[in-house]
């Protein structure tokens, strides 16, 4: 399973933009030795989030699944709010940001990265 979005993924992400803010759901399954690498990535991403107006909404380990498909095995969840899909795209295109993405890639065995559209309630 891929852990990083491709250029085609980002192009589709932008083409399906309904406008407004976006919350990115990150479901993370760490490699056996990946937690330290992801923690370093988490610390180093903060200035890049700030630069585009993004913020971490929630980050934490996952625990008991009450209702889930067989084989559900995510270790952690991360929710990050961005002012727009374009802001997310600008961040991941930043050459300095790209210098730290290897930390994330090395940390993860599997991942889900999915855009959420706020309901406005």
Automatic annotation (TrEMBL):
Domain DUF1330: 36-110
PANTHER family found in the cross-reference section: DUF1330 DOMAIN-CONTAINING PROTEIN, PTHR40257
Protein name, as recorded: DUF1330 domain-containing protein
